Amino acid sequence: MKDNLVFYGLPEASPGTREDCKATVLNVLNKILDIQKDIMIDSAYRPTQQSRVGRPRPVIVKFHYNQQREMVRKLSFEAEKQQILKQQNIGIGVQLPMEVREARKPPYDVMRQAKNSGKDVRFVGKDLQLNGQIYKAGNQERSDNQ
Questions:
Q1: Residue 114 and residue 134: Cα distance in Å, rounded?
Q2: Rounded distance, CA 99 to CA 39, Å?
Q3: Counting C-beta atoms within 10 Å of the first and last residue's C-beta, which end of the chain has fewer, N or C?
Q4: With 0-12 CB in 10 A as exposed, 13-18 as middle and 19+ as buried, what is 16?
Q5: Is 5 exposed, middle or buried (CB count within 10 Å of its CB: 0-12, 13-18, 19+)?
Q6: Percent of the chain having pLDDT more than 70?
Q7: Measured between alpha carbons, how far apart are the two ends of the chain, in Å?
Q8: Could you tell me the residue ranges of all domains in the chain?
Q9: What topology is assigned to 1-95 in CATH?
Q10: Separation of alpha carbons 138 and 112, rounded Å
Q11: Cα–Cα distance between 120 and 133 in angstroms, integer?
């Protein structure tokens, strides 16, 4: 998982036609993120489970080199690239284990409110940080034995 990124919102091919996810991702990297150098992708595929109605399934991309994955990830955070991705309803994120994804679900509402009020908000591993402080919900203390 450490070399993977997940691309959300990429249109799917019509049912019954073969889809080249790798070519679709390389097209996004070239046209939207303006990456002109060769990116080595080991595999790109959509999970077999169907996503929510009306949404295309995400594409999971395994990069050959972690440095290239990081370059793509960091470029997706640049303001102008982020604007273009948002206009086209495309998202790029790190593939995380189920355990981390589940741990991040409860504080999402708090995260959105804090972000809207202008606070510095980020997830670090399973923890939500607001202005550099680890968020603890009510009496639910987070244990530090990891």
A1: 13
A2: 30
A3: C
A4: exposed
A5: buried
A6: 91
A7: 19
A8: 1-95, 97-146
A9: Alpha-Beta Plaits (3.30.70)
A10: 17
A11: 10
Q: Where do we find the tokens 């939207």?
A: 32
**CA–CA separation, 9 and 25 (whole Å):** 11
- Please tell me whether residue 66 adopts helix, strand or coil conformation: helix
Amino acid at 53: V
Using a 10 angstrom Cβ sphere, with 0-12 exposed, 13-18 middle and 19 or more buried, the burial of residue 17 is exposed
Residue 138 zone, left/alpha/beta (φ > 0; ψ -120 to 50; rest): left
Give the full edge-to-edge strand order of the sheet including 4-8. Answer: 41-45, 59-63, 4-8, 91-94
Give the DSSP letter string of 72-138.
HHHHTTSHHHHHHHHHTT-EEEE---HHHHHHHSTTHHHHHHHHHTT--EEEETTEEEETTEE---T
0.85 surpassed by pTM:
no
Q: Give the containing element (helix H, strand E) for 21.
A: helix 21-31
Specify whether the CB–CB gap between 13 and 19 falls below 8 A.
Answer: yes
